[in-house]
Amino acid sequence: MVDVWLCLVQDGNDLPAPIGTAIDEEEAVVPHRLPGSVQDHSVNGVLTSFNAEFFRIFDSSNRQGLLDAYHDQAIFTMSYFINFEHQSKQWKFDKYFADSRNFMKVNDEGKKLRVVKLGRLPIVSSFTSAFPPTTHDFGSFTVDSHIATAALIVFTVYGVFKELESEEKSAPIRAFYRTFVLIPDGAGVFKIVNDQLTLTNASGPQASNAFTNNALPSMSVAQAVPTMPSEDIKNQMIVQFSQQSGMNEGFSRQCLEVHEWNYDKAGQAFLELNVRPIWKKECA
C-alpha cells in the first residue's frame, strides 16, 4: 500500500484540508501477445496463399515473376535501421544504403524522391539490383491484418530471412516487416498498390531460432542466378522506359540492352549521365 498526499497551493498559500488517498502498488500488466491479428478470419486463406506465393517467387531465381502481383501504378519503398538494443552481431547494411528511405538518415530531399519506386517494372527490377539472393523463414512469419474488405486489404508480415550471397563469414540473418496494400483490379484479382519494406538485424533469439521450424520447407530454393526477361516483358519495359525518359523506343531499347535489361540500373545511368537533352535532339 502506498500513501499519496496531494497538497494544493494557490497564490503561494496552502489550501486547507490536504487530500489523502491510498492505492495498491501493483506492477503494470502487459496484455498477452497474440501470434497474429486478423480482423476477418475469412481472409486467412487469401493471406496465407498470397504470402506463400509472393515470398516463394522473391526467393526464386527469377523475381520477374512478381510483375503480375503489382498494380501498374504501384509504389515501393525500402528503409533499414540498426537496432542497438540487440546485443547480437550487427551485420552491415552497406548494400541497402543507396535505396534506403529512412528519414532519420536521409537528409537529401532529392534522394527521398529518387528511391521511391513507381510502377511495377521499376519495382520488380529493383528486387534484382538492390537485393541479394534470399531465403525467407516461413516458420518465423507473423501476419497482422489491419483492414480486410472486398475493396481493400492492408496487412503486415513480420519475419526473418537469410542472405545467400555475402562477404561475411556466415550468411547474415535479417529481420523485416513488410506492409502491403492490395486492391482488386478490373478482373477482381487483388494487386499490390503499396509495398513498404523495413529491415533491421535479427535479435539474438530470432537468429538462433531461424530456420529451426520452417512451416513451408518446400519454399526454400537455391541461390538466384541472373535471368533475362521474356520478349513480352522486354517490350513492356521499353514502352515504360520510353514514357518515363522521353526517348523514343529505339534508344530506350539500347539503354536497357546495355544494362542487361536491368530497369533500375538503366534508369540510374540515364539520370547520372544527364543525356536526356542529347537523345531528345537525336530523336527529333
Task: Write structural notes for this entry.
The chain is α+β, with helices and mostly antiparallel strands and 284 residues long. Helix content is 30%, strand content 25%. Strands 5, 6, 7, 8, 9, 10 and 11 form a seven-stranded mixed β-sheet that branches. A two-stranded antiparallel sheet has the order 1-4. β10 (173-184) and β11 form a beta hairpin. The chain starts with a strand and ends with a helix. Mean pLDDT is 75; it is low at 216-226 and 274-284.
Order of helices and strands: EEEEHEHHEHEEEEEHHHHH
Integer average pLDDT: 75
Distance between the termini: 86 Å
Identify the overall geometry.
Answer: globular
Radius of gyration: 25 Å
Estimate percent helicity: 25-40%
- DSSP summary, beta strand count: 11
Assess the beta-strand content as a share of residues: 25-35%
Sketch the major β-sheet: 7 strands, mixed
In short:
The protein is α+β, with helices and mostly antiparallel strands and 284 residues long. It contains nine helices and eleven strands.
Task: Give the tags.
two-stranded antiparallel sheet; alpha+beta; seven-stranded mixed β-sheet; globular; 284 residues; disordered C terminus; 9 helices; 25% strand
